[in-house]
Sequence to fold (454 residues):
Amino acid sequence: MSPPDRILVVDDDRAMGDFLVETLGGAGREVRHVSRADAAVGELSVELDLVVTDLRMPGIDGLELCRRVVERVPDVPVIVLTAFGDYEAAVAAIRAGAYDFLSKPVKRDVLEHAVTRAVDHRRLRREVKRLAAGAPRARPGDLLGESAAMGRVHALLARIADSDSTVLVTGESGTGKELVARELHAQSPRAARPFVAINCAAVPATLLESELFGHERGAFTDAKTARAGLFVEAHGGTIFLDEIGEMPLALQPKLLRTLQDRVVRPVGANKEVPFDARIVAATNRDLETAVEEGRFREDLFFRLDVIGVPLPPLRARGNDVLHLAAHFLARYAQRAGKPIGALTTAVAKHLVAYDWPGNVRELENVIERAVALAAHDELTVEDLPEKLLRSARARPATLDGSELVTLEEMEHRYILRVLEALGGNRALAAKTLGLDRTTLWRKLERRASKSPKS
Fold:
């Protein structure tokens, strides 16, 4: 169970402090309120997940507190609350190291969304550092993952490893179905015996029968010698039938007989040959639909789907993408002879935000490419393919409904971000935003006039 998020609230207004503690105190969080920034400095530690502070306070103000946090615990984000509403204060807060700023009075849903984003950012930075430090993997094989979705897969594999029942692994292309089969074999009593794999879609239909079941010498034109076939080669171990949904319909009755009786009849032979191998099949197809459409035998489907292992797509595995990226980074950096030891936080954000339609296979290709292009001792955003960056840029600022604000509010926040990025240069900001300077000034003044004064 994950430890609770620890949040420090700093505000000299008791009522505001109570409001923040009450609002943020749910969802398994530990929230502590102090009324002075100098007292907050004494409580700064790496155990904190977030600081939420007022801007104007007696003694040390919120800006100075931001600077102290950056000096002492740079990975802890700070959200600054200000009742003044002017962009200069917001820009100053960002420059002092604040992660975000919110104008008072702040709505509960807006505050909750901002806090969730900041805490997630903290977790992401912590995870990147842990991976960069070479923290040991939880599992010895290449089937990596600590997400809840992969935890269920690992738990299921542990339960069925000692069984000889046929297994059907399902999942999108690139999710690692062969790795699941290999992990199952490695955990089974058959681990010391052969693991034999074949992609049923990669072998021409005219050769697939011979590959699987073997053939006698002279059974066909090129059969100059006899061959045992993969089922017999896997004797004592595991045979993995990848892309089983592509099995030709004409060959499916023979495969069904093989699964039922654990014997094969080589092409051109008069006798059946017994074998003892566990059968694991995999597909990215919907076999039930294929059965309904007459493209796959129903009896064969039931014989294959004795134990189903659904494999989640990478987009449903949370921060597993970072574990896998670190794994591939170490592999390809070693192959390339490059001293690349880490991902930057910016790279990690892009990796986590991307949907990964090609799943783990696509991630591996992206990291291999990035290592080849890398010119530093860590991967940077410049090493990522443009499609990842386009995907991130295309995401709206709010998608999940947890923060619903007016277009005016969104515009104002974006203007402030642009100003901050350009060092407060209004002329350049206006040009970047496609506005004239007068229009930009009026937008800022209009918003400032609507903000309550403290």
